[in-house]
Input
Amino acid sequence: MDDLNALLKRAESNEDFRKLLEKLRWAEGFKCPRCEGSHYSRIKTRGLLQCRTCRKQVSATSGTFLHGVRNLRAWVKAILSFREEDSHSAVAQALLLDRSYATTWFMLHKIRMVLGSSLYNLTFEAEGALAVPCSFLKPALFKASSEGEPPQPRCKTVLSREMVSRACSFIVYLLDVFHGVSRKYSQVYAFEYALRERSSELTPLRLIGCFVRGSPMLRRDIFECFSPFLLYF
Ligand SMILES: [Zn+2]
Output
């Protein structure tokens, strides 16, 4: 792992990041996705590996969530930004990554989808979801004019000391990063908060490792999944 960390630290070009992803994907040695063969030769000019048994050509990202991504540098940076304490808006991220707003918006949502499914098992299966009553979050929520009265909770929720402390961190996050949010969208922000909280607990390599598996995602699916939350920024 040490040399991978060093590789990540030094990585600057897309080629460096491709090498890193290759090592992460085939940490146990190359395995052809078609025939599971372990022998390969390298096609240097195209950054591909060719299976010696079935001659399939693969790259570090083919068939994974990062399938077809050319600018690996920008993607890895965007993925790692989920470990950072202060969250950036898509606009700020776009400037940092030197991409257009639309591209950055798309990148960040795709990353959220992948992380959401990868971290789900770690988060909810282990501990169960943390249910925080809206009344508790009041200092950080404001009511959008289109909202009706919220349903009154039927029973009193008892929060443990640990839950109160986590809920307080959530309130601070909502106030600090977003200066309060609309109650209507608070669930989306809660999702974002949980993602970032969990991501920050993972090592950079483990976080990037979530992306060197899975299967490619269609652009359409990502837009459909997130379009109701376009207001989220
Ligand atoms: Zn093969």
